[in-house]
Amino acid sequence: TSPYGDLISNVKTFLQKAISEPPQNPLSAIRIINEMIIGPVTKAQSNITGNLFYPGTLLDESVSIEIGGIESAVNVLLSDVTIEHLDTVGNPFKVIDPIGANAVTSSTTFGVPDDQLKVKVTLYVKISGDSDSDVLEDKLDITLQVADLSMLLSTFLKVSTHRLENITLVDFLNGYCWAAMIPAPSLDEYGVGQYETEDYPTATIMDLALTFSSMQLNIDCISCSSKGFEELSKRLQTPEGKKSFSVTAGTFFSRLMEMMGGKISQVFVDRALNEAQGKCANPKSAATNYKAFDVQSQEPYPKVLVSIICFGLFLLTISFAVKECLVRRLRQMERERLKNAPNEEISRRIQQEYRDKAYQDTLDSSTDPMFLSPVISLSVRVLVPFIIIGNIILFLTGHLSLGASVAINAGLAEQKVMIYHFYEFSMFRSAVQMWTSGAKILSVLTFAFSGVWPYSKQLVILGLWFTPPNRVSVKRRGAIYDWLDLYSKWSLVDIFV
């Protein structure tokens, strides 16, 4: 039709008719694809029609991992990959079939009618620990059979007719130039498309699906140190095992297709369209470097706990302030009352204060420190300092030594794997880890109330036990003990942490 003529529509009509023909028809597009395209290509590669064979090693990766202070070497090797029955393309088969003004869909099916699609691979896995006894080494032949494997891809594309009409023969075989026919969206510094623009998106994945009627997994041990693989192979051959694996694989691929069709894939599509604009003119042009995403580190400890502790400190500060205000107010009221009081009452009040002060002075000058006081038995006077020093030693032991340790005893294919000291707990280590992890407020609170305060309390008690009353009065010493007893509970903050 105008202005493009009838060539494209006639070709589309011919292809649709060829695709709709049954496979037995020599003009069937499916038969042409299987016998004239896939068949010769696969036979030239593997000498077997419909099969692809890649001998030798395809993947050989060795990594070192450290778990709980134990370093292990992991070696994974994939070799001898075979794909069978690729020439089983069947209906439904669609290639760039329009479903809207800017939407097309493509679909195909493998593994029909009777020959299932098969993928065979040899897998070698070796995990070695610190000692020669901690070695897991297995070599497996893995076969995956899939029946009626259907793949569907629906896309939304805005193609520039001007670029399509003016494509040159030089660019005809350049895939980047075909992609450049789709206008590239505007990207920010992170390489993410600007969603607020009217023409966004210019290309997106509308639907992505992969389904199958059944999937079967076979595992054969060539040489296995893990006896459980033989039992696993037998279970996979049972009807229950086949059904369970097929359902699990279907759920996995369904979730995988959802992820691939989401926002993450849209970012890759947008970046690819922008890269295609430059690669079409210069295939050797460098790729664009985008700014890395700023990932906010999460607080490893709940903010509610921090808020509660801070609120408790706030109430404590308020209580001190209120107490001080009340004391000052009572003293001021007493002074105002005494201004209008009779002289006899004022004189009696002054004499009482002198008597109280004289009593305290006499008490302070006539008494000894508690360590030397004859009122207290000798055994208590000698034992208390040792008890206080013992408490300090116990605190140090609890804070610095190992509080708990987590060990992992795992079984992999009936082969036991033991990881000792996977994680260790101690108060001092927890405070340091909280600081390095970003929970600095909790680290400071834990260090102050569970690290400094218990020792301060013990040292103050020990000091008052030997300090004579002429240095610290009996009344002040009693008040200090009362305050220590009142606020000793704050040394239990680390329990909540």
Automatic annotation (TrEMBL):
The keyword Transcription does not apply. InterPro entries: PqiA-like. The chain crosses the membrane at residues 304-322, 382-412, 432-453. The keyword Transmembrane applies. It comes from the Eukaryota. Keywords: Membrane, Transmembrane, Transmembrane helix. Pfam families: PqiA. PANTHER family: PARAQUAT-INDUCIBLE PROTEIN A, UNNAMED PRODUCT. This is Uncharacterized protein.
